[in-house]
């Protein structure tokens, strides 16, 4: 996986506010660095581009990523950026601030970002179906970038592809458990390695494997639901990304615009030959201007 598709851990300071306006209770909000966001609610960000407008619905259950995009939109961060990672029948990607002043032929999406976000990966609930919105990551899948996001188009998958992905996700879960059990022994392992004491390293590894197996045996293995299976085998998506990248929203309206962007001609680095630009991105309030219907 190239880095541009693939974490600042954000510390939430919660400010619960209950008020009354127009005879109706206002929603609770949280405050981060002087910025506020609605708590326990989906939010929407609308993107006006040179090829049309689409709206993203951001899930309440992924608050770190939801707030990150909302705050970036409020700051005007996305305005003037390009879509630089465009792959037909796969995804479109944006969020690299360097694209605002990019020259023709510049390779985009590869610069390190100063901030990261703790992953909120939930493949049993939020997966890479057609129209899914995810956040890119670097080499550590435990953290997302704070800037680059992608929208999935994808293609129809065979059942064997889903079976293989279930196996990969369960392997990653097992590795996370074993890593957590190994961490308290890090100092002694370093000492054994320095002394080339392979016997003690092997014995500890065997012990940790047994402990890991015991923990995993008490957990339900990940398996795609019937709904997810039907989505992937009949509609399409990108299941190979599940379990490794955070999905935090979906296209609410304007999927035809996303599709059109994905169809443009690109160079060998997946940058459109003719720039596709975000004119403006802003937080959209459904009470004032609701889209007609969710994207299918």
List the helices and strands and how they pair.
Layout: E1 13-15, E2 20-21, E3 24-25, E4 29-32, E5 35-38, E6 43-49, E7 52-58, H1 63-75, E8 91-94, E9 116-118, E10 132-137, E11 143-152, H2 159-182, H3 186-194, H4 198-217, H5 226-235, E12 246-253, H6 255-262, E13 278-284
Helix pairs in contact: 2-4
Structural write-up:
The chain is of the alpha+beta class and 296 residues long. The chain is built from 6 helices and 13 strands. Helix 2 packs across helix 4.
Question: Briefly, what is this?
Answer:
With 296 residues, the protein is α+β, with helices and mostly antiparallel strands. It has helices at 63-75, 159-182, 186-194, 198-217, 226-235, 255-262, and strands at 13-15, 20-21, 24-25, 29-32, 35-38, 43-49, 52-58, 91-94, 116-118, 132-137, 143-152, 246-253, 278-284.
How many β-strands, per DSSP? Answer: 13
Helix coverage percent of residues?
25-40%
Q: Work out the radius of gyration.
A: 21 Å
Strand residues, percent: 15-25%
- Shape descriptor: globular
Mean pLDDT: 85
Helical region count?
6
Which structural class matches the secondary elements?
alpha+beta
H-E string:
EEEEEEEHEEEEHHHHEHE
Taking the alpha carbons of the first and last residues, their distance comes to: 27 Å
Largest sheet: 8 strands, antiparallel
Uncertain spans: 1-26
Features:
296 residues; alpha+beta; eight-stranded antiparallel sheet; three-stranded antiparallel sheet; 6 helices; 13 strands; globular
